[in-house]
TrEMBL record, chain A:
It comes from the Bacteria. Pfam families: PAPS_reduct. Residues 42-266 form the Phosphoadenosine phosphosulphate reductase domain. This is Sulfate adenylyltransferase subunit 2. Coiled coil: none annotated. Keywords: ATP-binding, Nucleotide-binding, Nucleotidyltransferase, Transferase. It is an enzyme of class 2 (transferase). GO terms for biological process: sulfate assimilation. SUPFAM superfamilies: Adenine nucleotide alpha hydrolases-like. Residues 290-313 are annotated as: Disordered. The keyword Cell cycle does not apply. GO terms for molecular function: ATP binding; sulfate adenylyltransferase (ATP) activity.
Automatic annotation (TrEMBL), chain B:
GO terms for biological process: sulfur compound metabolic process. Its EC number is 2.7.7.4. It comes from Streptacidiphilus pinicola. It comes from the Bacteria. This is sulfate adenylyltransferase. Keywords: ATP-binding, GTP-binding, Nucleotide-binding, Nucleotidyltransferase, Transferase.
Length: 313, 432
């Protein structure tokens, strides 16, 4: 029972123990990776070749150095992935001697377990192959690159997010998550989605990429590309289903802010061809990355919540 | 960090090396908390055009003229349908001076659980009161939770000043009453700020209606309050998460203990004690994420190499300075979080840092009324949202610090053995 005491107001620059926000976020993410390594039997990292999963892998490599990463990678390939991203994925796997599992949406369509959607987008079709791969691979912890700043349903998700035997997320029955004590207990058949980048923002991710000099697939930087307009976004022309009649292809200087697949990810007009230019562009942007580039999130106010309930990333 | 940065010079470079403040907001249902959070996000220009457009659209659909900023934070369908906040939502915003992680916690009576959760990682708590109502039961509850969770800084935001004609005496009386109550709970730093979240007074921009107030706006205070503690003043605590043994040709003999410093500073050459075994050894080297360094400090994630080959595994604590005495008898203040009551005699799991052990609830000497802080002796069990005192016996010894001196090594969870549900949040030692 003490009364008010004024606190020391040491300026940050005088403090030899000051850590930047990136240092703190990095330390937290590494702690999460190591918790999973310590408590789970068979974890896997969801790796799409997008910047968030690339940062996740970078953090995992640092967390266990000089030993190798004790997890495999899992990629859900929609069949509409950018060739640049697939090439990057294969290069990365080879460079670090990692194990890669691929769950193929195309295979599921070919053998009749999934049906192509009328609009041709395949992003919502990823859930079934993803859950199938988790089940057959017997993965008990699945790292995802989701961030809470991306979307308002994600803002309510835990770092350790328990999924039932159907892979479903029930936001009303989440475990409270306190301090840095993560509860990963689960029954046989259930698994835990783990989000080490929960507290990162898009800008944090880019600043970290710059600080750590992490290589990205080249489509994240401004380049010329044949695109056509649909739903207010620039989509890449190609075999996957575009352009349709009435849509015209033009060559524009664009880059991608997010990398899903070609059917749902839009490019933005940009001349940002270096990391510094990209960071300046994001800092000045008036649109969220999902709002600017994701058709899948524009479906309804609760589009993400509904997909997550079904077992989506 | 410089204090002369201008907001409009928010170049990316200036955002690069800034500090991070985690804070929590708590308020009663109609105190305007969501409006305040919306105002902070909106006025600090953290709300982007498409988010605002979505909120405007949704507000119009509900028949509201002005955009309802509360819709920015209510993320789940049930929340929007019922117009209430159900769960802790984490929000992110930045100014040129600092990055912020905001745990936005619902203020309903039945959601003490969420406030405890949000406060557990917060370095600052904003407690919101309605200037017309002053300090009410829920305000006391929020102050008690902030005090219990040892949130270092508390801000009292006296909201809706526009509805009391921006009158100083109204503010002063509330600030004084709250300050006295918070001090009696052991809260060391309280700052009271008169605001109107709806009109925008003193949230981001200084108010033109309250010349009598000479203090900072809420955002200014958030930007300048000191973050973190000084690691050099704390004993080092390093819970071992994972043993790193590459067993490769290049690193044949490498054996490192991976973890995150919970407090303090470790240096190569430091003498340390490994708990609970109590073995003393020396730090042979420190690897900070792949780079060898001679110093590491909280909250860095590092790998510690020790001079001697000792049997150490996940769950052990490497400690320097005065070390806690390992014990199987834990006395703690707890917040019960689950609908399933916690009863005397229950067998549970106890998760403390990186160690999970079996435990039995030996006694619940008293429950604590969160409103009056009165002790209710021998309640027999604790229900959801109850606070209380618990005596536990663990199957193995734990190196627990007092929660008052270390939030990370003094806290624990009780977990249901059968289905893994998180039952209870525990804080070792005295409550207030």
């Amino acid at each position: 029972m003490t009364t008010a005491i004024s606190l020391p107001t040491t300026a940050a620059q005088d403090n030899p123990y000051a850590l930047s926000h990136l240092d703190v976020l990095e330390a937290e993410a590494v702690h999460i990776f190591r918790e999973v390594a310590g408590e789970f039997e068979n974890p896997v990292i969801l790796f799409s070749g997008g910047k968030d999963s690339i940062v996740m892998l970078h953090l995992a490599l640092k967390a266990f150095a000089p030993a190798s990463v004790p997890f495999a990678l899992l990629h859900v390939d929609t069949g509409h992935n950018f060739p640049e991203v697939l090439a990057y994925r294969d290069r990365t796997v080879a460079e670090h001697g990692l194990r890669l599992h691929v769950a193929s949406v195309q295979e599921f369509i070919d053998n009749g377990r999934l049906r192509e959607r009328p609009d041709g987008t395949r992003n919502p079709l990823q859930t079934v192959p993803l859950l199938d791969a988790i089940e057959t691979g017997r993965f008990d912890a699945v790292f995802g690159g989701g961030r809470r700043d991306e979307e308002k349903a994600r803002a309510k998700e835990r770092v350790f997010s328990l999924r039932d035997e159907f892979g479903a997320w029930d936001p009303r029955r989440q475990r409270p998550e306190l301090w840095s004590l993560y509860n990963g207990r689960h029954a046989v058949g259930e698994h835990v989605r783990v989000f080490p980048l929960s507290n990162w923002t898009e800008l944090d991710v880019w600043q970290y990429i710059e600080r750590e000099k992490i290589e990205l697939p080249e489509i994240y930087y401004a380049h010329e590309r044949d695109v056509f307009a649909r739903n207010g976004m620039w989509l890449t022309a190609g075999d996957w289903g575009g352009p349709k009649e009435g849509e015209t292809v033009e060559r524009r200087l664009v880059r991608y802010r997010t990398v899903g697949d070609m059917s749902c990810t839009g490019a933005v007009d940009s001349d940002a061809d270096t990391i510094d230019a990209v960071i300046a562009e994001i800092a000045a942007s008036r649109l969220t990355e999902r709002g600017a580039t994701r058709a899948d999130d524009k479906m309804s106010e609760a589009a993400m919540e509904d997909r997550k309930r079904e077992g989506y990333f | 960090m410089t204090s002369t940065t201008h907001p409009d010079a928010a170049a990316a470079a200036e955002l690069a090396a800034t500090s991070l403040l985690r804070f929590a907001t708590a308020g009663s249902v109609d105190d305007g908390k969501s409006t305040l959070v919306g105002r902070l996000l909106h006025d600090s220009k953290s709300v982007l055009a498409d988010q605002l457009e979505a909120v405007e659209h949704a507000s119009r659909k509900r028949g509201q003229e002005a955009p309802d900023l509360a819709l920015l934070t209510d993320g789940l369908r049930a929340e929007r349908e019922q117009g209430i906040t159900i769960d802790v939502a984490y929000r992110y915003f930045a100014t040129p001076r600092r990055r912020f992680i905001l745990a936005d916690t619902p203020g309903h009576v039945q959601y003490t659980r969420n406030m405890v959760t949000g406060a557990s990682t917060a370095e600052l708590a904003v407690v919101l009161v309605d200037a017309r109502n002053g300090v009410v039961e829920q305000t006391r509850r929020h102050a008690a939770v902030a005090a219990l969770l040892r949130v270092p800084h508390v801000v009292l935001a006296v909201n809706k000043m526009d509805l009391v004609d921006y009158a100083e005496p109204v503010f002063a009386a509330i600030a004084e009453e709250f300050g006295a109550y918070a001090a009696s709970l052991g809260v060391k730093d309280v700052t009271a700020i008169p605001i109107s979240a709806l009109a925008g007074d003193n949230v981001v921009e200084p108010s033109a209606n309250m010349d009598w107030y000479g203090g900072p706006t809420l955002l200014e205070h958030l930007e300048t309050v000191p973050v973190g503690s000084d690691p050099s003043e704390e004993p080092a605590r390093f819970p071992v998460q994972f043993v790193i043994r590459p067993q490769s040709a290049e690193h044949r003999d490498y054996r490192g203990y991976a973890g995150q410093l919970a407090s303090g500073v470790l240096r190569t050459g430091d003498q340390v004690t490994v708990l609970p075994a109590g073995i003393t050894t020396t730090v042979a080297g420190l690897d900070v994420l792949g780079e060898e360094r001679d110093t590491a400090w909280a909250p860095q994630s590092v790998t510690v190499r020790l001079a001697e080959d000792i049997d150490i595994s996940r769950g052990d604590l490497i400690a320097a300075g005065p070390a806690p005495e390992p014990t199987q008898d834990v006395v703690a203040t707890v917040a019960h979080l689950n609908e399933r009551p916690l009863r005397v005699g229950d067998k549970v799991l106890l998760k403390h840092t990186t160690r999970t052990v079996r435990a039995i609830v030996k006694d619940i000497p008293y429950a604590i009324s969160v409103d009056t802080l009165e002790q209710v002796p021998s309640p027999g069990s604790l229900n959801v949202n109850d606070l209380g005192r618990v005596v536990l016996r663990t199957a193995e010894p734990l190196a627990l610090d007092d929660y008052r001196s270390n939030r990370r090594t003094g806290s624990f969870l009780l977990i249901d053995q059968a289905d893994g549900t998180t039952l209870t949040a525990g804080m070792a030692g005295e409550a207030f």
